[in-house]
Amino acid sequence: MRRCLALCLLTLLTACSPPATPEPEPVADAPAPPPLPASPVAPLPADASAVLGRAESCMHFSGEFNGDGSENDREVTAAMNELGCDRLDGETKAIKHKYRHDAAVQQAFKALEEGEGG
């Protein structure tokens, strides 16, 4: 959720920024600058990304559960069952162990645990 808000805020700030000044014409003898990396953040492995996404969804739905037995609670319970939220702790531990040397995976799960995910 915070990532989405941050992305929206960044988009708004970019849209509200004054137009960039035109760049000077390149000099014919000047060397070309090195290419920029494709993405500043490496994508997560598919299995880690899937577990992370489910974890974010489960956290969202857990906040929707009132515990009053209402229709809403039944819908939330069904959604959480479909996501397999009850299996998530074990799967998260397994993914974190599998990618214990992958800093991006470890940081993504750390951010989720600290409430900065999604």
Describe the structure.
This protein is mainly alpha-helical. It has a domain at 50-118. The protein is built from five helices and no strands. The protein has helices at residues 2-16, 46-64, 71-83, 88-98, 103-113. The longest helix is centred in the middle third of the chain and has 19 residues, at 46-64. Residues 1-17 have low confidence and may be disordered.
Summarize the structure.
Keywords: Signal. The chain is an all-alpha fold and 118 residues long.
What does the secondary structure layout of this molecule look like, with pairings?
Blueprint: H1 2-16, H2 46-64, H3 71-83, H4 88-98, H5 103-113
Helix pairs in contact: 2-3, 2-4, 2-5
Characteristics:
118 residues; mainly alpha; 0% strand; disordered N terminus; signal
Task: Give average pLDDT, whole number.
Answer: 77
**Approximate helicity band:** 55-70%
Helix/strand order: HHHHH
Number of separate strands: 0
Secondary structure category: mainly alpha
> Total helix count?
5
For the report, how would you describe the main beta sheet?
none
Cα Rg: 21 Å
Rounded to the nearest angstrom, the distance between the terminal CA atoms is 4 Å
Poorly predicted sequence stretches spanning 5 or more consecutive residues? 1-17
Q: Quick one: overall form?
A: elongated
Strand residue content: under 5%
